[in-house]
Amino acid sequence: MFTAKPFTLILAVLISLSLTACSVQPRPSPWEVEQEGLVFKYSNLPIPIAFSPDGANLIMGCESNQIHIWNIQTSKIAQTLSSPNPYMQPLIDGSSLIYTYPQIAVSPDGKTVVGVGIDAQRKILVWDAETGKLLRSLAGHESGWQLMETAFSPDGRILVTAHADILLWNTQTWDSLGPLVALERNKRTPVFSLAFSPDSKILAVGSFRRELPNTRVTGPIFLWDVSTRKFLRVMEKHEGVVEALAFSPDGSSLASAGWDAKIRFWNVQTGEQLRVFADDEAPILSIAFSPDARLLASGSWDGVVRLWDVETGVVLRKMRSGLWFYKGNVHSVVFSPDGETLAAGLVGGRAIIWNVKTGKKLRVFHNPGEMVNRQVQQ
Question: Which residues of the chain have pLDDT under 70?
Fold first, then answer.
């Protein structure tokens, strides 16, 4: 059963089929393996990114099932975190497709990095960010489902990991604190986005619901009280999957975005929809508030990063990835701790850093490995 985000999954399959039809030959790659069949490569996985708390490093997920910690000043990799059971992905072998969607989380003190969706045994991997040592390999989720989301609480005490089920972890002992209740009666409703409130008391979860018989897709947002595990409310206005969530720095409002190309703002206490921002028809894949709460950044399917004035809803600036087709998709955006720069994670192992005030592109990072797609000859 597929567990990837639908847009990326569909593109992966289509590109794989088109490459096969055209008999594209492989270029040399350190990730190729000695196996039967034709090997060729391309990059289509979205890249998760995060700044270190001091703003000196950029942490990037990688298609090769590694996480690279880049020194921004030198543009060199300071540390590489590797999975002990890596995927070579996506892998088409006959009629089966194995697909993962890597995600990362960095602890508030910057000492710990967590990766999900990069381990073939579907484990939650915990590393020491400075030494690169693998500290923990956690299990506990339902088997057969690849994890898609993870986040640390702002106080650093709790880690949440999710896909079809949601687990909370004590980061002091790494013991499981147990699951949250199922999102719907259908326990297989996947999680597409997570966000903690700044005080770590509320967890927001973005998902989707398919309504029969017309198969209309809506995007509910669920709120839980973290300490009591009590379900608080559901907020429903989105059409399609909710890909991104972000609490305002003061915790009073929640921003959400997704396939309907709209950014919606919600009153956290009442669940009331406050405002709606819209600029284009391109699905929005990521959002982030600036530290001073004056700006909201959004990354879209059209390869554009937009900077919104939170008070007026006006788009102040558009910054383009400059890449064609799916490789320009902006799957993650994050402000630096001082709010002066903005990073965007793209498909295919790339990240771009812009100056927020000028919109000038400052640096481009490109992970050294590209994933392998292997079509086995029958």
Answer: 1-46, 63-64, 87-101, 143-147, 181-189, 211-215, 323-327, 369-378
Q: What is the pLDDT at residue 121?
A: 79
Torsion angle, CA of 261/266/268/269, rounded to 10 degrees? -150
Count of residues in the chain: 378
Sign of the alpha-carbon torsion through 345, 346, 347, 350: negative
pLDDT one-digit tens code per residue, 75-118? 999 999 988 887 654 444 333 344 456 789 999 999 999 998 87
Reference 339, options 285, 295, 298, 282; nearest CA is 295
CA distances from 342 to 275, 329, 337 (A): 24, 16, 10
Q: What angle do CA 346, 217, 276 make, to 5 degrees?
A: 65
| DSSP secondary structure string for all residues of 17-72 | HHHHHTTPPPPP-TT----SSEEEE----B--EEE-TTSSEEEEE-TTSEEEEEET
Predicted pLDDT at 22: 29
On the 0-12 / 13-18 / 19+ scale of CB atoms within 10 A, 292 is exposed
Q: Which CATH class is domain 6-375?
A: mainly beta
Q: Any residues with CB less than 8 A from the CB of 129 and at least 6 apart, and which? A: 52, 59, 69, 79, 81, 106, 110, 111, 112, 113
